[in-house]
Amino acid sequence: GQQVMQIPQYQHVQEGEDFTTYCNSSTTLSNIQWYKQRPGGHPVFLIQLVKSGEVKKQKRLTFQFGEAKKNSSLHITATQTTDVGTYFCAGPGNAGNMLTFGGGTRLMVKP
Amino acid sequence: DAGVTQSPTHLIKTRGQQVTLRCSPKSGHDTVSWYQQALGQGPQFIFQYYEEEERQRGNFPDRFSGHQFPNYSSELNVNALLLGDSALYLCASSQRDQPQHFGDGTRLSIL
After folding, report:
1. Mean pLDDT for each 10-residue chunk of chain B (111 residues)?
2. Which residues of A touch B43 (CB under 8 A)?
């Protein structure tokens, strides 16, 4: 079955440093979605990428979808303490919109 | 406009018991998905309901069953609880194949 992997599993950064998490799928994806889960919270939808090579920005967050539509990345510029949480990528299954989540990257920011 | 609501928030059960978790989708959403999230891991897809029928199912045993009502709300039932069923159970709603919105979850502990 489809597998989605993320690296790194954990990342400690000093406030103001940049952060990147990488996502790889075992199969080609029709789209890739990114979610953020704060400690003790629930996943919150951030963005969906659909096109090969697509790049989208949300303020300090930059999302990329690979040319082969099997990998993606999330880059945060100048991290802030409010960025703390676990970032998940998720790909849809073969039918419907069931999501296969990666294991997540937990971001910790030291003030 | 209420988002996805789940009840109860927390639940403690013992091995062998049965549990029912409830979910009301976001207004305007007709599809409900259930996920199990173990501590430190990404959500795992259990099943999805649309038009009161199970549309897709993940790799979970028959002890996990569900239902969707005409008002789109949904229930997740788990029979013969095992210690390994301890997890955060997340409900997500969407409009057909649009991105999913998650509720706060029900934290289930099995003693």
Report:
1. 90 97 96 96 95 92 97 97 97 90 97 94
2. 43, 88, 99, 101
Residues of A (59-88) whose Cβ lies below 8 Å from B: 88
Contact A34/B at CB under 8 A:
no
How close A51 gets to chain B, by Cα (Å)? 16
Q: For residues A64-79, give the mean pLDDT.
A: 97
Asked whether residue A1 carries a pLDDT value surpassing 80, the answer given is: no
C-alpha distance from residue A73 to each of A22, A34, A66, A80, B98 (Å): 5, 9, 8, 19, 21
Residues sharing a CB contact under 8 Å with residue B62, sequence separation 6 or more, in sequence order:
none
Q: How far is CA A45 from CA A84, B2, B19, B53, B75, in A?
A: 15, 16, 28, 25, 23
